[in-house]
Task: inverse folding
């Protein structure tokens, strides 16, 4: 994992997602719209759209690590910046869902 601790979050490669889920108490969050999520998503991912972040961000329990992904990785970076300062690690997936799909090919 690339450490971006100065930013309050860490970058992770797609291949590291399930290892992190096994090792830590973590939530996998798909930040894409519900329509995009329905077309395909990762197992165990919870759909919490970036556009509704103001509603759901306060409901995430402290101490739980968050693994964020979106379509290409841009929104997850924005979300990670907004969530920094909370208790628990924050990860963003490099390249987002597109990179994850390429890894499967």
Result:
């Amino acid at each position: 994992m690339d450490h971006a601790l100065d930013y309050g979050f860490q970058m992770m490669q797609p291949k590291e997602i399930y290892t992190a889920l096994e090792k830590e108490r973590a939530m996998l969050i798909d930040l894409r719209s519900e329509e995009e999520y329905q077309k395909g998503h990762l197992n165990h991912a919870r759909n919490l759209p970036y556009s509704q972040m103001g509603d759901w961000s306060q409901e995430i329990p402290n101490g739980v690590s968050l693994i964020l992904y979106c379509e290409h990785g841009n929104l997850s970076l924005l979300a990670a910046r907004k969530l920094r300062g909370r208790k628990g690690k924050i990860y963003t997936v490099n390249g987002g869902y597109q990179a994850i799909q390429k890894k499967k090919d």
